[in-house]
Design a protein that fits this description.
Blueprint: H1 2-22, E1 31-43, E2 46-56, E3 68-77, E4 85-89, E5 95-96, E6 98-100, E7 105-110, E8 119-126, E9 129-137, H2 146-156, H3 158-163, E10 165-166, E11 169-170, E12 172-180, E13 184-192, E14 196-203, E15 209-216
Parallel strand pairs: 1-12
Antiparallel strand pairs: 1-2, 1-9, 2-3, 3-7, 4-5, 4-8, 6-7, 8-9, 10-11, 12-13, 13-14, 14-15
Length: 217
């Protein structure tokens, strides 16, 4: 009977010890940016892109996740030079866009939940000339979630995550952005406290790591 009573605390102690050693954090709690949907239109020398997701504000690549906010970002490359460009839609509250001279595109962003459905209809007003466009979502059957893409990167480079994990705390932040170039990909960036970013391009359907590199902000 005494041996049995002695064995119980020994087993409990072993469980606590080994459980503490193998415990890992919930890495999704360290995601500071997600881009979960993209709507596109391209034709007649016009390109429109709408990105939906969440992002820390202000966004700083410092290895520490800040408070997240829903965000919708819109980029427009019209077929000409204009003084003023505005965009409107029944799906969101539009307005005047700002010109990004470095990229040759017009831009606006606002806080809103991700747009739903497979299409978004917009009206572009360029110096008084209005044109309607329908943007299509790039999401299709078989495209994995942002969280699943993160799992694929962790499986590919578990040593990186282990090296940044200390006492159950991840000392970094994670960026996950849906991309489209003839098919869907995910950019997954892991940023440490020194601002070094380990970046992975992941096939959004198979989870295969297509490319990877390390750079600093």
């Amino acid at each position: 009977m005494k041996k049995f009573l002695f064995a119980i605390p020994a087993v409990v102690a072993a469980a606590v010890f080994y459980g503490g050693c193998t415990a890992s954090p919930d890495y999704t709690q360290y995601i500071s940016e997600t881009r979960s949907n993209v709507f596109l239109y391209e034709g007649d020398d016009v390109k429109l892109s709408i990105y939906c997701g969440e992002k820390e504000s202000p966004f700083v690549a410092d290895g520490i996740r800040g408070k997240l906010s829903d965000i919708v970002e819109i980029y427009v490359r019209p077929n000409g030079e204009y003084e003023n460009v505005t965009i409107s839609s029944s799906s969101f509250e539009g307005g005047e866009m700002s010109y990004l001279s470095a990229r040759g595109m017009w831009y606006m962003s606002f806080s809103a939940a991700a747009l739903s459905g497979d299409t978004v209809n917009v009206t572009l007003n360029c110096d008084g000339t209005k044109t309607d466009y329908t943007l299509l979502s790039v999401l299709s059957d078989g495209v994995m979630s942002c969280e699943k893409a993160l799992d694929c990167v962790r499986e590919h480079d578990g040593e990186l995550f282990d090296s940044l994990t200390e006492n159950g705390t991840f000392r970094g932040e994670i960026f996950i952005r849906l991309l489209y170039d003839e098919k869907c990909y995910y950019y997954v960036g892991v940023c440490d406290r020194e601002g070094n970013i380990h970046a992975y391009l992941t096939d959004a359907q198979t989870g295969r790591i297509v490319a990877e590199r390390t750079h600093s902000m």
